[in-house]
Each structure stands twice: as C-alpha cells, then as structure tokens.
Amino acid sequence: MPRLFIGIELPDAYRQELNPLIKALSSLTDASTNWSKPDTWHLTLKFLGETDEARIPSLKAALAAVDFTAFTLRAGGAGAFPDARRPKVLWLGLAEGGEQSADLTGAIEDGLAALGIPREKKPFRPHLTLGRVRRPAPGDWTPVLDAAAAHEWPPFTVTHFTLWQSTLTPKGAIHTALAEFPAQ
C-alpha cells in the first residue's frame, strides 16, 4: 500500500538555502540528527499513511473539491517538538501564511472526513521540519534554534497543494507527486 501525505511544495529558493543552513546548524551540535533534504522538503498539511490504492481516485476527487485562495507563505522563527530542552524535531515556523495554511488544512480535513478518513486529534501546527534528533546530545539547543530563526526566508505564493506518495528507502524518503490541486 502506498504511503501518502498532502502538502505544500517549497520553492527552489527555499530548497537552495536549506543545505547551507543545515551545515551551519549541524556545526552547533554533536547530536545525531537526520536533517531534511532539499528535494523532499515540504509543509505537511495532512499525513494519510498507508492507504489502499483503490482509495486514491476518491481521495483525488475530494481534494479537487477543496476551495482555497492563493496565499503568501514565508518561513520565520524556529522551535522544537516537544520542547527545546529535549528536542525530537527541529522546525521553522511560518512568519506569514500560518492562518491560511490552517484554513486550508481544515478544508482538506472536511473533504476527507466525508470519505471516512479521521480528522487529526491534535490542532494543526504549521511548520517546516529541519531535522529529527535521533540521539540527543547534552547541551543547550538555544544556539541551534536561534541560528535557524535568524535566517531570512523570502515570501512565496501558494498556488496549489499536492497529494504525495512517500517511499521509504535506506537512503531516505522519495516523494512522488500523484496530483496537484490549484487554488480557485
């Protein structure tokens, strides 16, 4: 069964700036961290997980009916889940477009609920994952998060969202776009 998620693809300007940022951040910690890769970096709106292939046409139809207006998105700020003292995930927040991303996620949740797909229990917290900390190192994570937050990101216009298939491999995930859904 394919592993699916719905997300917003990031522009080339973001992908090109990711590696230099990751290099700078990784020099600030000894923790074992799986850093995001430019070719798979995205904003997740909804993770569907393992999905029966027979459901994909109805998913596409429900997503095609989602009505949203193009909006501006810009990364800004940084944080960690569950918190900065013992981070598992390092992320960038959104300086612009957070509310619109949440509204879009709500519309997607509404459309998929009609297909019997459960809504997320936790509130949507828009973020761009920078890395997953596998083995925390002792020390203060403030310099890492401060460096990530200080990076200036350009605004871009979200004109569509995408249904992705994520194939896990020993070298990392490979994301394949199955369909794009434009703003109305």
Automatic annotation (TrEMBL):
List the catalysed reactions: a 3'-end 2',3'-cyclophospho-ribonucleotide-RNA + H2O = a 3'-end 2'-phospho-ribonucleotide-RNA + H(+)
User: Which InterPro entries does the annotation name?
Assistant: Cyclic_Pdiesterase, Phosphoesterase_HXTX, RNA_CPDase
**Which key words are in the record?**
Hydrolase
Which residues carry out catalysis?
A: H42 (proton donor), H127 (proton acceptor)
Q: Is NAD among the key words of this record?
A: no
Signal sequence span is none
The organism sits in which domain of life? Bacteria
Location of the motif HXTX 2? 127-130
The record places domain Phosphoesterase HXTX at: 8-91, 98-174
Q: What's the stated role of this polypeptide?
A: Hydrolyzes RNA 2',3'-cyclic phosphodiester to an RNA 2'-phosphomonoester.
Instruction: Report the protein name in the record.
Output: RNA 2',3'-cyclic phosphodiesterase
Q: Which gene encodes it?
A: thpR
